[in-house]
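Ticket #4471: structure export looks truncated?
Reporter: QA, pipeline team
Priority: medium

Steps to reproduce: submit the single chain below to the structure queue and open the exported record.
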Amino acid sequence: MDSDKNVGGRDRLIRAVLAVVLTIVSLRWLRSGKRKRGLLAGVGALGLGFNASTGYCGFNDTLDIDTTASKNDDVFAPDTDDESTDVSVDFTSTDDTEASNGHASGQLTCAVCEDPIVPGERRGPNDEGAIVHETCE
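Actual output as written to the record:
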């Protein structure tokens, strides 16, 4: 038996969870009289529990699979060798103007008098749904 670890990270966690689930299934089947199924589930639970606790799997060793990875070589991490492209999205359109209450410029303006609406100033929608000063309604 090779003493190197070949099971790590998420693979060990998944095997441990499956071992617990198979143990519960095995006990339920053994109590209900389904001995063959219960024994098979128990053997599977023992195998997965061994893999999870020792970090070694004979099947992985035979197939040359190694799921242990250092922080720089994580098998679940996306490839960083690919050229990445930064995407910038502009949500303003050519129709965005100051008439749209200044949302494109980041400052809220009154639709009637076109003066800026400062924070804390009372405002509300008019009959057309545009934001206006309370005095301009």
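Status: closed, not a bug. The export was complete when the record was re-opened. Leaving a note from the reviewer for reference: The chain has three helices and two strands.
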